[in-house]
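Researcher: I'm preparing a figure for a lab meeting and need a structural model of a single chain. I don't have an experimental structure, so a prediction will have to do for now. The sequence is pasted below. Please return the structure as tokens so I can convert it later.
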Amino acid sequence: MAEAGPVPVLTLLLPERRRFAGQPLGDGAAKALARGDRLPDGEAGERAQLLRHFDLLPRGWPMAAITRAIDAEDAHLHTWLRADPAHVRPDMTGARVLAVGELGLSQDEADELVAPLRPLFGDSGFPISAPSPSRWYLALPREAKLPDFSPPEKVLGDDLFAHLPDGPEGRRWRALLNEAQILLHNHPLNERRIEAGKPAVNSLCFWGAGRLPDRVSCRVPHVAAVEAGLAGLARLAGANTDYGRDELLLDLRRERDWSVVATALVDALATHAGREVRLDFSDGTRWSLRSGQKWRFWRRPLAALA
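Model: Understood. Here is the structure written out token by token.
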């Protein structure tokens, strides 16, 4: 008798469990989670979560170059640094970062805001461009030495000044950011946005520095991605960005409605009897669910994710 092949796996990439706090799990999902297997916790954070499914050579996390590969055709030419539009609000102790990237800008608005920044960064040897309203880039010399920059997931909600780089190289970037903030603060478009009740683009978030990886591989053949970083990784790895019938990585990290996740996992277990469904939360929590686990009927339905 021929040996059975590997079981196809549907992996749901999910945000932190706390994003679903207070929401009912639903009868089907609560039973499936209780009867499923808790896998060993992984490292928390977006980078660690995606590295559970992708491998990059050389090692690193050059997300600016990776997303540039889907935004333009020149990703291989430079070292790239994201300089995403940001909204900060001054408070008693500093400046709180309330938004990075997704500020509801149109492409025309992004181009208008970037225009006065071109001389500032161009004269420093770092041309700025905005091929996407939410993703702005600085093109750097390939061998540029850069300080460490905090990713948006660490900066959001925190004091901007707590995440500015230190040291001699950091001093240069702090000065550039300060000048950029002045130009943005005085931009007439921001006046119009404030009058319309929209957040002003009054700062930048530098992050994701690096060169395009030499090689990217993916542990599954199909990746259904909406977010730019995952879509870029999938393209570089040669993964099919569709809903394949075999192994699939499905990106639900922006989802805040647990019922959507519950429906996806219950339907997957019901319609694909031989498939394993894995839940991968960005806080590191992981589950393995299979339709055959329904015989563990003595386990009480899970009351909450945490």
